[in-house]
Design a protein that fits this description.
Number of domains of chain A: 2
Number of domains of chain B: 1
Helix content of chain B: over 70%
Strand order of the largest sheet of chain A: 6-7-8-3-9-10
Helix content of chain A: 25-40%
Number of helices of chain A: 12
Oligomer: heterodimer
Shape of chain A: elongated
Order of helices and strands of chain A: HEEEHEEHEHHHEHEHEEHEHEEHEH
Structural class of chain A: alpha/beta
Largest sheet of chain A: 6 strands, mixed
Largest interface: A-B, 30 and 25 residues
Order of helices and strands of chain B: HHHHHHHHH
CATH architecture of the largest domain in chain A: 3-Layer(aba) Sandwich
Strand content of chain A: 25-35%
Shape of chain B: globular
Number of strands of chain B: 0
Radius of gyration of chain B: 18 Å
Number of helices of chain B: 9
Distance between the termini of chain A: 64 Å
Radius of gyration of chain A: 25 Å
Chain lengths: 347, 255
């Protein structure tokens, strides 16, 4: 008996040597969140079984329309939303059971700008450090360094209300980094920023990531997801539809190029187009048209070769449809999104 | 504990920075009331000379209640209805109940400070008017004030988390106003024995206990509620509001 236990141990030891246990910094396992209904509203299944893991130093993204369940997922990770079921581990600490320890490993840059209005920018950072038990010398030094890094040092003595949206966002990132978290959660960080501020923030995030910070980002901006994220989960209706690197997601599309066409047709011409050689897939995109006299949008995944456009145009004409305009492009994340969901991002 | 103390220190710092307007908003009313009812009217012979001594502890109780409630309620309503500054606290390494308790303690300190500033101001205003003699029992005053401050701020937490922000204006008219009139602030509980069993209806008002506690501490010679009833009442209201406030705080903040 004793020998068999020893043998079992030896096998387990061998396995451990062959496959060193790789501990993800964040594990989300079959997360479900249903907001209870009220007298006036039915229950809302915001997240319906989401699982993913994020490695140390990774920039991970959740891309999806408003109401897809991204923020609820982030809320559950941050402990501010109580999961209905499932498990979340932050560096091994369970967020529902070992909440306080898990909180030490998490930082949140929320959607709402919630800087402490009664303090100066510098105090916002140093008090945050106090909440996490940082010694005085350490929190002062860190606050100074982060104010510099996030380019808000000149605003150190200002009140948050006197800062622009982009500056407030950068102060919130500095605040998040004060306690040296394992994972930083960014909930739609650039929503409401002008393009210039958005680009500056992207630069900042990228340089922080290069120095080793682990980020999880939610966004509904394709460009943002494409520029920042190393891996991306496309989320809709509370589920992950697909998860991979942006490049692999684009490669997963059925063909090399995307041909968008806007047509006015008396009868559906998609079946006719599907028969055209070189056309791999035809999707009818619902982009909010009322279905009456509106243009129909078709997205063709094509392997463009000699005469392809000509063949497509013939097929359209033979189908008795009017072609309004076309555009040929390399597949983008938006194409990936439309491919997986069959529609454009809702707003 | 580190996070709790850090949050408390932050709140005290911010409160002291805004001390001027805060004191003005909590002290103006009781001081003017005591000036009219404890100084001017007794001099005119319109109220009994001793009325000031009956009112002073009651006004102190009202001051503490209002300071405690406002100290918690106003920031909380702002937070829950939009600014969400509370989220930073909830993300600190402290339990949600811990965050609620910190709010209660900070509110109680606010309440205590208001009460302890109101008292000497009132004594000064009534000095030498009629036969008014206010000699507080200092050894009782501090512990009873602490208990009253905690009840006031726990009550503020309960109101702030259970009442829809758009109704918070109504609170003062519908809840706090009647509480002040029927909270034994302007008359001692013992004197209510003349209205029979109806006297006991006043016990559902937490202000009754706060007023009587202050009466015992500020004018120890005056007639007051039995000690046993007072202590049970204070403990019961503290427990009810502490529990209800922390519970609804958790419900409102963690979805």
């Amino acid at each position: 008996m004793a020998r068999s236990r020893g043998g079992h141990r030896a096998r387990a030891g061998l396995r451990a040597r062959i496959e060193p246990p790789r501990m993800s910094i964040l594990v989300v396992d079959d997360l479900v969140k249903t907001y209870p209904g009220t007298r006036k509203a039915p229950p809302v299944e915001a997240v319906r079984g989401v699982s993913f893991a994020v490695e140390k130093g990774e920039f991970f993204g959740l891309l999806g329309p408003n109401g897809a369940g991204k923020s609820t997922t982030l809320g559950c990770i941050s402990t501010l939303v109580r999961p209905t079921s499932g498990r979340i581990l932050v560096d091994g600490s369970d967020v529902t059971r070992d909440t306080r320890e898990a909180k030490r490993g998490i930082a949140v840059v929320p959607q709402t700008r919630n800087l402490d209005r009664d303090l100066t920018v510098r105090e916002v950072l140093t008090w945050h450090g106090r909440y996490f038990g940082l010694a005085a010398a350490e929190r002062e030094a860190r606050a100074d360094r982060l104010l510099q890094e996030l380019q808000v040092a000149d605003k150190a003595q200002a009140k948050p209300a006197n800062l622009s949206g982009g500056q407030q966002q950068r102060v919130m990132i500095a605040r998040a980094l004060m306690h040296d978290p394992k994972v930083v959660l960014l909930d739609e960080p650039t929503t409401g920023l002008d393009p210039q501020a958005r680009r500056l923030l992207w630069e900042t995030l990228r340089s922080l990531h290069e120095r080793g910070t682990t980020f999880i980002l939610t966004t509904h901006y394709m460009e943002e997801a494409d520029r920042l994220c190393e891996r991306l989960a496309i989320v809709d209706h509370g589920r992950i539809l697909t998860l991979d690197t942006p490049a692999a997601l684009k490669r997963s599309l059925p063909a090399g190029q995307v041909l968008d066409m806007w047509v006015r047709a008396a009868q559906p011409i998609a079946p006719r187009l599907r028969r055209v050689p070189g056309v791999m897939k035809v999707e009818e995109v619902q982009d909010g048209g009322d279905g009456g006299d509106a243009l129909e949008r078709l997205r063709l995944f094509v392997d463009s070769g000699d005469g392809l456009l000509d063949r497509v145009l013939h097929a359209v004409r033979d189908g008795g449809a009017d072609l309004h305009h076309v555009s040929l492009s390399q597949p983008s994340l938006e194409d990936v999104y439309i491919h997986f969901t069959g529609r454009e991002l809702r707003d | 504990m580190t996070a709790f103390l850090a949050l408390l220190r932050r709140d005290l710092l911010v409160t002291t920075r805004h001390a001027g307007p805060l004191l003005l908003s909590t002290l103006t009313q009781p001081i003017l009331v005591i000036l009219v009812f404890g100084n001017i009217m007794p001099r005119l012979g319109l109220v009994a000379a001793g009325f000031g001594a009956v009112m002073a502890p009651g006004l102190m109780a009202i001051t503490m209640l209002m300071a405690g409630v406002q100290g918690v309620l106003i920031p909380l309503v702002q937070d829950l209805s939009g600014t969400r500054e509370v989220d930073e606290r909830l993300l600190a390494p402290i339990s949600v109940r811990g965050v609620a308790m910190e709010r209660i303690v900070a509110g109680a300190i606010h309440s205590l400070a208001a009460g302890l500033v109101a008292l000497p101001a009132m004594i000064l205003l009534m000095h030498g008017v009629g036969h008014t003699d206010v000699r507080p029992a200092w050894s009782l005053l501090l512990p009873l004030s602490v208990a009253c401050g905690l009840i006031s701020s726990a009550f503020g937490l309960t109101l702030g988390t259970r009442v829809q922000p758009r109704f918070s204006g109504l609170l003062f008219a519908v809840v706090l106003g009647p509480m002040m009139l029927f909270g034994c602030a302007y008359y001692p509980f013992a004197a209510l024995s003349r209205i029979g069993a109806f006297q006991y209806a006043f016990l559902v008002n937490p202000l009754t206990f706060i007023s009587e506690a202050m009466r015992i501490a500020v004018t120890p010679g005056a007639e007051h509620m039995p000690y046993a009833l007072l202590i049970v009442g204070l403990a019961a209201w503290l427990f009810v509001f502490g529990f209800a406030g922390a519970r609804s705080f958790e419900r409102r903040t963690i979805l």
